[in-house]
């Protein structure tokens, strides 16, 4: 039993009011669709290919202001996060999103930073959208995860932990980060569409989790001893190349860990989902259980 039960929520209006979810077929957007639907919201996936989604969806080109206006107009809310892709594409997409919001005026916008900085001078696409939303004046909230537990599912991490009993990450054993899952983000997004909370909302373990903490969570769930080993970035990339036939996904994990450690040293005025919404992030063993692994 979790210390804080997941709260039931009620949509802001009748069931016909649409809530648009970008990236509804992806790792971040799909849990949001599931959580919103379970809470009684009329969640609509905004996707490029509607055949890839089982529920209600519409074709939306993220770079087309006109398509975005059609999707947003009359909606109860819009959930936005950065898709996979090139930074230059992201900037163009977030500008198209902001122009559409300015015209269509959805009732509420919830955006996830996906671990990117949104402070002045950061230059990230999500920071551009944040700045634009402040100028537009539509009610909005910002979900601020730091690093996702889903990174641990990479085969060079997860498979090796189960096979060898050692969880290896390019992270010093004393470093603590605000780990959270995409499921935690989805719970937070759902609450933010129900509650009139604005500003930034931090999502993740507090105090942060260290590598040994994560290994202990694996040990508890799998009921066997799993140790933690901090390794260098180069050693991790070698493991990644062996695991996937290339270091692309390994480099992605390295980059996210580095970004999270930089973010952990930054200060901001955000407050946590625990204090604002009563939502405690899943412990590592709870997350593994909810995934059904």
Short summary of the structure?
With 293 residues, this protein is α/β, with parallel strands linked by helices. The protein is built from eleven helices and twelve strands.
Give an overview of the whole structure:
This protein is α/β, with parallel strands linked by helices and 293 residues long. Among the domains are: 18-138, 3-Layer(aba) Sandwich (Rossmann fold), CATH 3.40.50.720; 149-176 and 209-262, no CATH class. The chain contains 11 helices and 12 strands. The strands form 3 sheets. An 8-stranded parallel β-sheet has the order 3-2-1-4-5-6-10-12, sandwiched between helices. The protein has a two-stranded parallel ribbon with strand order 7-9. Strand 5, helix 4 and strand 6 (140-145) form a beta-alpha-beta unit. Helix 3 (87-104) runs parallel beside helix 4 (125-136) and helix 7 packs across helix 11 (284-291). The two termini are 18 Å apart. Mean pLDDT is 89; it is low at 1-8.
Terminal-residue CA separation? 18 Å
- What is the CATH topology of the domain at 18-138? Rossmann fold
Estimate the strand proportion.
15-25%
Radius of gyration: 19 Å
CATH architecture of the domain at 18-138: 3-Layer(aba) Sandwich
Let me know the largest β-sheet: 8 strands, parallel
Tell me the structural class.
Answer: alpha/beta
CATH class of the domain at 18-138: Alpha Beta
Q: What's the helical proportion of residues?
A: 40-55%
Find the count of extended strands (DSSP E, 2+ residues).
12
Q: Which spans of ≥5 residues are poorly predicted at pLDDT below 50?
A: 1-8
CATH superfamily of the domain at 18-138: NAD(P)-binding Rossmann-like Domain
What general form does the structure show?
Answer: globular
One letter per element, helices H and strands E, the order comes to EHEEHEHEHEEHEEHEHEHHEHH
Strand order of the largest sheet: 3-2-1-4-5-6-10-12
Average of the residue pLDDT scores: 89
- The number of distinct helices, counting runs of at least 4 residues, comes to 11
